[in-house]
Amino acid sequence: MRPARFQEFVIALAGDDPTAGSAKTLAEMDDSVPCGFAITVADVTRWGVVGQLPDGAKHTDFEDTPVHGDPIKPQDPPRATDSPEQWLAALLAQSGSAEIAAVERWSTREEARTGYFGVTVRFHNTARVFVRLL
């Protein structure tokens, strides 16, 4: 899933989630980040999105055709009291998307860097998006 399509996917998910007050693109906020979104839960959080093509793909001939597999097992739903990173990871895990193969929180990784929060979303076509809390 390319970053622009992922951005719209997350905005739609957040728009349907009862814990989210609003969700919009960063471009709607006149932000300088080319791809990202802002979600209001307890506070407004801004997220930048960068993508990585599937293994072996080239930008010149890549078509963003969905590849489906088993959705990841749902975890606890997002709660308004979750940290922003935890909330976003839960939202994605609960989506039931057959394109998503895994969601990894940066702060819970073994090699986690202090002060870096975000998620890596791996897709069944081996593409990835990296979503960083700004």
3D structure, described in words:
The protein has helices at 3-16, 84-93, and strands at residues 22-25, 36-40, 44-52, 100-105, 118-123, 128-133. With 134 residues, the protein is of the alpha+beta class. A six-stranded antiparallel β-sheet has the order 1-2-3-6-5-4, with helices on one face. The two termini are 21 Å apart. The mean pLDDT is 94.
How would you summarize the topology of this molecule?
Elements: H1 3-16, E1 22-25, E2 36-40, E3 44-52, H2 84-93, E4 100-105, E5 118-123, E6 128-133
Point out poorly predicted stretches: none
Largest sheet: 6 strands, antiparallel
Mean pLDDT, rounded to whole units?
94
Shape: globular
Whole-angstrom Rg: 14 Å
What is the N-to-C succession of helices and strands? HEEEHEEE
* Cross-sheet strand order for the largest sheet: 1-2-3-6-5-4
Give the count of helical stretches: 2
Number of strands: 6
- Going by helix content, strand content and strand pairing, the class is alpha+beta
Query: What is the percent of helical residues?
Result: 10-25%
**N-to-C terminal Cα separation, in Å?**
21 Å
Percentage beta strand: 25-35%
